[in-house]
Amino acid sequence: MSAAKATLITCHANADFDAFAAMLAARHLYSPHVLLFPGSQERGLQKVYASLDTKAYSFADNSNLDWDSFERLVLVDTRQRGRVNHVAPLLDRPGVIVEMWDHHPDSGDDITSGTVHLAQTGSVTSFLVQQLREHNIRLEPEDATLLGLGIYGDTGSFTYSSTTPEDFEAAAWLLGQGMDVNRINDLAAHELTSLHIQALNSLLESAESYTINRTQVVLAEASMEHYLGDFAYLAHRLIEMEKFPVLFAIGLMGDRIQVVARSRSDAINVGDICAALGGGGHAYAASASIRHMTLHEVREAILRQLYEQAHPDKTAREYMSSPAVGIESTATIREADELMLHFGLKAVPVFKPGTRFCNGLLDAQTASRASAHGLGGALVEDYMQGQVQMLPPEAVLKDLTAIIVGGRQRLVPIVEEERVIGVVTRTDLINVFAHEQDSLPVLKHSPSKERHVGKLIQDRLPPSAKDLLHLAGKLGRELGLPVYAVGGFVRDLLLNKPNQDIDLVVEGNGIALAKALAQELGGRVREHQEFLTSVVIFKDAKGAESRIDVATARLEYYEYPAALPTVELSSIKMDLFRRDFSINALAVRLDSTPFGQLVDFFGGQRDIKERVIRVLHTLSFVEDPTRCLRAVRFEQRYDFRISTSAERLVKNALDLKLMDKLAGPRLFGEFKHICDEDNPLACLVRMDQLGILSAIAPQLTLIPTRKALLQTLQDMLSWYRLLYFEKIPQAWLVYFLGLSHGLPYADTSDLFLRLGLPENKRGEILNQREQMRAVRGRLEAWQKRQNGQTSKVSALCEVLAPLSLESLLYLMAETGDEDLQKKLSRYITQWQHEKADISGDDLKELGLPPGPLYSHILRSALKAKLDGEALGRDAQLALAVTILREKQEVDFHKN
């Protein structure tokens, strides 16, 4: 492709105008050369590149490069290895000369070998233009214009705080070379589409303000289904419109998140923060492209980095609890259990006997379970966690977070001279990020952006629900306890869907509020201390028993994938964070003034508006795989869509085979909820598309015949519900019969066991399958007699009598015989409810003493009625007299 001993010139992936212009400038300093453009997601730059004569500029295609023909690699506008993967074959080849032209600060990912040309300019193009001036290189006006475009782009037309005198001097020299300012204005112009306007509005609406180092920092979010070009320009527009000192614009685009950061303040270095997110930039302008994180996780990561910038000198010594409570390895499990119970600890370091040397960790759950299994006398060293990560007192917050959050270790022993001098726990970190209001969101949710839903509550809820919410708020104010209505109730309130299943969460003593509520309502409280919850049971205005759940704000975390949650005290934010999806992580504060302040930390309102199901963190489905089923259920119920990133996380959970670890009863609970939906088949089809059904059990795959049967079953259930009979079928049982259609008995039994049916229900449904097997043969015989016109309705009723309503609906859906389907329909709606028109009193008046003959005559009358042989009371009385006479004649002859 190129001559020997050539120089390859390139910039970072996803180039901007400055990087591109710097490549064009560098080509004048190296000869022979080849330019490699790594591509850009900025539409303006794409248009500029497309308009160039690439051969005249010596641009090459990556796929056609002869890597062995280059002896030098020149990188412009970056030194980070992770941003130049497109030239990895050359970078890794021994003997290649590497030169880098950059204006960004040092980072941990910087290439360590080679020559670095570093400048403190707003634009790296300005730095290279200085070199062109010193070498007396003359430029064509078009070249000067393109280089000027880079300087204008990276200095914000000389308005960014990072702009230096050298940038102005470089632009002035380019102007003397023929730079066309009007053309730069045209090339840099951004054409905003309706999608850009929509994203800009989302950024404005979601903007939340924080005070860090006495500087206002704004985080704003927007979500798009696909990549949106010129997102960086939207950030520029926003900071100009609102005059924010520091802005982080966070854009969710399909399965990635784009962060664009701008700063006008020396107090906040946005380059360092974006570098920690895997991106780059300088103190005043930076960006990052992130995969495998949710919006909330990116936001929290930015806040964590901001916190660390605000407290650069704070170390583990200041975070730790000291002295550390621990236990020696030769102590017993019972002693450890009692120690942790006494101090209220979730885990303790284990010490070598007679020392403060840590050689393990023991958590309270392990100790408690071992004691429950009669192992209280066993030694701690037999059950402790042996591999423990420890840190020195000089460690910073990032180090602690990596172990506790990343490594999922319950606590970190802080060690000095091999002695444990303190510990930092998971709760300590929660306190850092959730409770240190002086350092984190001080200006969050300014009054102009607060939303109150008191009017929605007034307009959309029945009086009983409104009164209950107002009472809870009043009691909360009296007790000094923040009280919230949370979860699905709030979601459905915003969607204007009926839902009076109210759950309350209290920041503080939830049980105290529950007792006060019970006293006001004349009810009682059932407490669950282990889970910090209680249930208030009371009689409503109609005298029916009602209940309301009251929980203490808590954070649930999972000891291992698919485990049941462990509970800790926390704030409302942490309580909401444990929930499954953003649309369910909403709360309404009831003790607030005015009443009904909406609490939305995670963009639930936005996702309801955009009709999307989004998880709160990337481990959501790993921690609880049943959320995969729940995501589908909510998606189909509300006609939403599972976000691209959430769908990818579902598939990741399936690839990890996490469904195998789910206990059957949890699956059964989720399937029951699905079967109670208005359109269960839509849920099952979607689960089948995502691979969830086959991951749970291969037998569940929706082959065409099974899918068709399930559709008919759904139609049958809808038909039956419209009849408004008192008896209500168990929907799950009907659908489970459909899901097992065509499976042998043994496979069906295995399937129902996997789906967690309780033993009695499993036996019930398997018995019904066997009953239907027997009934099918009798039905065939009845149909043959019917074709011969000897079959009677009463005979059909006798055949069907043993079957449950669920089995009858299943048979009705399964049969392809339209006449039989009609007969089954008549049986379900009419024949099985028929009674004889005469009664025992009529038989008594005929002089028949009570006895077995009564039931025989009444059955005969009913059969005759069903078969059209004795319609009406008189005909059935006549039949009764006839049967009576026949009985008397038989008795006479016997005697």
Automatic annotation (TrEMBL):
One of its GO terms (biological process) is tRNA processing. Keywords: CBS domain, Hydrolase, Magnesium, Metal-binding, Nucleotide-binding, Nucleotidyltransferase, RNA-binding, Transferase, tRNA processing, tRNA-binding. Its cofactor is Mg(2+). The keyword Hydrolase applies. It holds the Pfam family PolyA_pol. One of its GO terms (molecular function) is hydrolase activity. InterPro entries: CBS_dom, CBS_dom_sf, DHH_sf, DHHA1_dom, NT_sf, PolA_pol_head_dom, tRNA_nt/polyA_polymerase. Residues 384-439 form the CBS domain. It comes from the Bacteria. Gene3D superfamilies: 3.10.310.30, Beta Polymerase, domain 2, CBS-domain, cca-adding enzyme, domain 2, inorganic pyrophosphatase (n-terminal core). Its EC number is 2.7.7.72, 3.1.3.-, 3.1.4.-. Belongs to the tRNA nucleotidyltransferase/poly(A) polymerase family. This is tRNA nucleotidyltransferase (CCA-adding enzyme). It comes from Desulfovibrio intestinalis.
